[in-house]
Amino acid sequence: MSRDVAAEALRADQVTIPAGHAFSRIPMISGVIGTIGLVASLVLRSGDAKQFAFSWLIAFLFFLSLALGALFFVLIHFATQAGWGIVVRRLAENTMGTLPLFALLFVPVTLGMRDLFPWIHGIAEGHDHVLTGKAPYLNTTFFAGRAVAYFALWSAIAMLFVLRSRAQDASRSQAISLGLRRLSGPAIIVLALTQTFAAVDWIMSLNPYWYSTIFGVYWFAGSFVSFFAFLTLVVLLLRRAGMMANVVGTEHFHDLGKLLFAFTVFWAYIGFSQFFLIWYGNIPEETIFFRMRLVGTWKAASLLLAAGHFVIPFFFFMPRTIKRHPRFLALGAAWLLLMHGVDLYWLVMPAMHPSGVALRLLDGTTFLAVGGFFVAAVSWLTLGSPLVPLGDPRLPESLSFENF
Amino acid sequence: MSHFGVLAEFQSPAQLYRACERVRDAGYTKWDAHTPFPVHGLDGAMGMRRSRLPWIVLVLALGGAATGFLLQTWVHNMAYPLTISGKPHFAWPAYVPITFELGVLGGALGAVFGMFGLNQLPRHHHPLFDAKRFARFSDDTFFISIEAADPKFDANATSRLLAAVGASHVELVEDTP
């Protein structure tokens, strides 16, 4: 049977996880894991509230970056009218559908603000010239207001696209695709701005004296790579379970592999640009960021990041064979997710442990807490609809897609 | 009189596709298909192997990058050492942009000229252009050409094979310089 025939015959029950499948227990199981992680974290918090705040921030940023990467993927898909990836777009929609949950997961960050952000004390004491100058932006009221705005905008855009895409499953209306396409351009601008400001607020202001104008792009690059890694793993997991077998194939793996390769290079390009200009300018308030990350074990972490987040995946993902081989692709994707975790730890944790890498139990428990709730939400959304957007007019194009 | 090979004419991409599979299965290696537009999956039907071009690009890209890095190391440390903004002579971060650019240049030149080389281009003439009917390969007709240089080539047997797989016209093409 040719793939075009398969496209016409694709029915909802062929691409929906059947009720009673082992996967239908995932939301429950990961919800329990999340709760255990949360309780353990709260118990450990009583001993070290500051460590809790930093560990939670890293876990929060890790899973938030997956959801924001998914949001950008879906928006760029509509904006460019891309055909190849329609078969994986629903999985990206499910990932970004978790964004409203992150407003809730942000609460521990606000509770730990005084431990996280030194500008709160600096401005309150009033004798720090630099921080007083930055006070119109870096103050708790505006900070909270911005956070509310970020979550409101992200959730609104994500839910609109999720709900309209699901409505199209039944109605098959092309007007939905056109409407979302018109909206996607402005939404990308909103996302670029909010994501940049969020990176400034939540990561850069951990050291309020330091600034880097490229920082928002750096955070975006990391989030997009890790989203592709996550998407690849989800697709391969579903394939392994026998789902989407005649929907997603080698040609789609190849494209995911190409994007993983491309955005690994993009991340390195942005990361090096940031380092290069700061190194060249040699101004103390800028160089402090890298000075802190080149002492003791932080230097080892920096080298691990350069090798593990760029050099190794660069050569690993280069051959065509790797990108078309599910097992190697899964290995590379899992490795990049791990490196994204290292990246976020490297960005956040030197502010608390300047003397060297200091892994704590709370790093693990907070990761389980945020990750558990995130996976519960993604899998719950995945169970609630077909695995591909059945009503999308470009679905046949995506099904019969081939690389040349 | 020596021959370049045999030229066979087909009326539809489907006929050409099936003929290519038969020629491939008959074990020919020095042959080609000519179509007015790309035919989906024809490379598979022709049994074509992956191009060697990526290896040429890789070697030249890495060679370009190495050249860029070594050139700057030599200039800044041996040939003409200067102290610039208080940086050490071996200031490797400053070498990265040129290293990167020469790597890209090497890869790009390797891709373009490697492609020319593997396709044996440019050339002034090809024996197939002497066949009058061949001009229609860029209009509405599909061709297979099998070269006399192919070890399995036999003017009579090869012509019979091509007629048997659905060619509407088969002719011998002379070898002209």
What are the main properties of this structure?
heterodimer, A: 404 residues, mainly alpha, 19 helices, 75% helix, 0% strand, disordered N terminus, B: 177 residues, alpha+beta, four-stranded antiparallel beta sheet, 5 helices, 46% helix, elongated
Q: How would you portray this structure in words?
A:
The complex is a heterodimer of chains A (404) and B (177). Chain A is an all-alpha fold and 404 residues long. Chain A is 75% helix and 0% strand. Residues 1-6 of chain A have low confidence and may be disordered. Chain B has 177 residues and is of the alpha+beta class. Chain B has 5 helices and 4 strands. Chain B has helices at residues 13-25, 42-45, 53-79, 92-118, 155-164; strands at residues 3-10, 31-34, 142-147, 169-174. In chain B, strands 2-3-1-4 form a 4-stranded antiparallel sheet. In chain B, helix 3 (53-79) runs antiparallel to helix 4 (92-118). Chain B is elongated. The chains are: A mainly alpha (404), B alpha+beta (177). Chain A binds chain B through residues 272, 275-276, 279-280, 282, 318, 320, 402, and chain B through 40, 50, 54, 58, 85-86, 93-94, 96-97.
